[in-house]
Design a protein that fits this description.
Chain A: It holds the Pfam family Complex1_30kDa. The complex is a heterodimer of chains A (about 180) and B (about 375). Chain A is of the alpha/beta class. Chain A is built from 5 helices and 7 strands, in the order H-E-E-H-E-E-E-E-H-E-H-H. Chain A has helices at about 1-15, 40-50, 110-120, 150-155, 170-175; strands at about 20-25, 30-35, 55-65, 70-75, 85-90, 95-100, 120-125. Chain B is built from 15 helices and 8 strands. A 3-stranded antiparallel β-sheet of chain B has the order 1-2-3. Chain B has a 3-stranded antiparallel β-sheet with strand order 6-7-8. Classes of the chains: A alpha/beta (about 180), B alpha+beta (about 375). Chains A and B meet through strand 3, strand 4, strand 5 and helix 3 of A and helix 9, strand 6, strand 7, strand 8 and helix 13 of B.
């Protein structure tokens, strides 16, 4: 019971100090907030001090109709078991954002992952010199909604034509000629 | 001495899947290491966006090869949270049996499998033979040995029969007597002890820095940080079990913890079989119409469970359509498998690299998903 009171207090502090656009509880023990993109590092630092010491996941969602990318940071508190989702939206055109590796060093490869699959650049995370997952990739980032894998694979791996055409009786003819032993 | 570049992998060196590490070595010591994932990338996250909710059931178990059931569980949990459907009481208990059997199977495989990198080849043979007995039970319950597609959103596919329950009970009795032999064979072996004791260390600061979870975290931090205890799902809050913890995480502790956790899983399954309701439904429909027309209400949710390597989670976004809008997978070994390899594999010796991977619990299929 104590932990719920603590969380309520924490949320009221967050609401007072930051511009929180949306506050929901998607499930038991889970809090989700949508914040302005400039506030994310401050909020993550604040939550880390309050016990959300583990960064579980950083992920990206492509809202193509809104022309936005949504970044979601999942934090977990091991003492009270509450998951915190901090979400923010950034522009889809020339997507750039601030890296959080100073706060959570473990975010480094999540950011690289998002960079490769969505094309979001993270300022401060310099480790993009060589592709990690997608070597020799020559198309737009594949997890974007406007990337069509079927079209890509048809272009990249065109259907081959086979010159040899077997007639319907080909197998029988071979057997007749005695090249393959007929098993009856 | 001249620096050499060597490759670990991309076959399976102490792991379950194709993954490569480029190691720059000076003599026998690794100076720099570069993880090279991507050889097993099957594009699951993209595929899931293009398939029906029902279709995905056959796809998701393949994300993590040695322990497929956790995927079914998080997927089902996420959909249940979004639709708000109630899971029948009996289904919760059956799910726990499946998850714990899968945990034992995975622990047996890695307890035996540790024999590979240390050169104790009786280990893998024993481990796989005993794991096969669990696969037999799975086959009886679900019809499949590895990929079960048994835990579905809204419950489980089918009820357990009396004979299966008897079979599980006799298997647990067998395993409880059998496990001490593993201790004699592997954990007490002086070769194994010399290779792992006071080596392959994982200090607590590194755990927090990388975000390592599971056995690695619990053996270093000294707290019972297990999602089954901290944020219980299914009916884990109604069973008693003990989570081993320590303040010193070397290779030996982490392997020993797998051994200890297997006993706890046996204890959990015994309690489940006792407490499980005898009769009742095992599945509630999640949406009206046939399974091909399932729709999940709009929303975003993150669900997570404890797998053998740590926290395993799905971030799911639904737009109220017949397909998911986006699913992101949090593989349990992502932190130690990528940043961990880059930062903390250097300093170990070449022959310990595979052992490092195995005791840290790196599982490439969930990194390349």
């Amino acid at each position: 019971m104590n932990s719920t009171n603590d969380t309520k207090e924490l949320i009221s502090i967050l609401e007072q100090s930051f511009d929180i656009k949306d506050f929901t509880t998607p499930k038991k023990n889970e809090i989700s907030i949508v914040v302005d993109q400039n506030n994310v590092p401050t909020i993550l630092t604040y939550l880390k001090d309050k016990g959300w010491k583990q960064l579980s996941l950083v992920t990206c969602i492509d809202w193509i109709e809104e022309n936005k990318f949504e970044l979601a940071y999942v934090l977990f508190n091991w003492t009270n078991g509450i998951t915190f989702l901090v979400k923010t939206k950034i522009d889809r055109k020339n997507p750039e954002y601030i890296s959080i590796i100073d706060i959570f060093p473990g975010a480094r490869y999540y950011e690289r992952d998002i960079h490769e699959f969505f094309g979001v650049k993270f300022e401060g995370n310099s480790d993009f010199e060589k592709p990690l997952f997608l070597e020799l990739w020559d198309d737009k980032p594949p997890m974007r909604k406007d990337f069509d894998p079927l079209e890509y694979s048809k272009r990249k791996f065109p259907d081959r034509k086979y010159d040899v055409e077997l007639s319907k009786n080909a197998v029988k003819e071979v057997i007749k000629e005695g090249e393959i032993n007929e098993r009856t | 001495m001249k620096e050499l570049k060597l490759y670990l992998g991309p076959n399976h060196p102490g792991m379950h899947g194709n993954f490569s590490v480029h190691m720059y070595v000076d003599g026998d010591t690794i100076v720099r290491a570069r993880p090279m994932p991507g050889m097993l990338h099957r594009g699951f996250e993209k595929l899931m966006e293009r398939r029906l909710w029902m279709n995905n059931l056959a796809l998701i178990p393949r994300i993590c090869v040695p322990e497929p059931d956790i995927n079914e569980m998080v997927y089902a949990m996420a959909i249940e949270e979004l639709t708000g459907i109630e899971v029948p009481e009996k289904a919760h208990w059956i799910r726990m049996i499946i998850l714990e059997l899968a945990r034992i199977a995975n622990h047996l495989m890695s307890l035996g499998g540790i024999g590979g990198p240390v050169g104790l080849y009786t280990g893998p043979n024993w481990g796989l033979a005993d794991r096969d007995l669990i696969l037999d039970i799975f086959q009886e319950i679900t019809g499949a040995r590895i990929y079960h597609m048994y835990i579905v959103p809204g419950g489980v596919r089918k009820d357990l029969s009396e004979e299966t329950i008897e079979k599980i009970k006799s298997f647990l009795d067998y395993l409880e007597n059998r496990l001490p032999e593993y201790e004699d064979l592997i954990l007490k072996n002086s070769l194994f002890q010399r290779r792992t004791k006071d080596k392959l260390l994982l200090p607590a600061e590194v755990v927090w820095e990388l975000g390592v979870t599971g056995i690695g975290m619990r053996s270093a931090v000294g707290e019972a940080y297990d999602i089954r205890k901290v944020d219980p799902y299914a009916r884990y809050d109604q069973v008693e079990f003990y989570v081993p913890t320590a303040n010193y995480s070397d290779g030996y502790t982490r392997v020993y913890f797998k051994y200890l956790e297997t006993f706890q899983s046996i204890k959990i399954i015994r309690q489940v079989l006792e407490k499980m309701p005898k009769k009742g439904k095992v599945w509630n429909k999640i949406s009206s119409g046939s399974a091909l027309r399932w729709r999940v209400p709009k929303g975003q949710v993150y669900t997570h469970i404890e797998c053998t390597r740590g926290e395993y989670g799905y971030y799911m976004v639904s737009e109220g359509e017949d397909k998911p809008y986006r699913v992101a997978v949090r593989g349990a070994s992502y932190p130690q498998g990528l940043l961990g390899v880059e930062k903390y594999l250097p300093g170990t010796r070449i022959e310990d690299a595979a052992l490092w991977m195995e005791t840290m619990g790196v599982c490439p299929p969930e990194i390349d998903r």
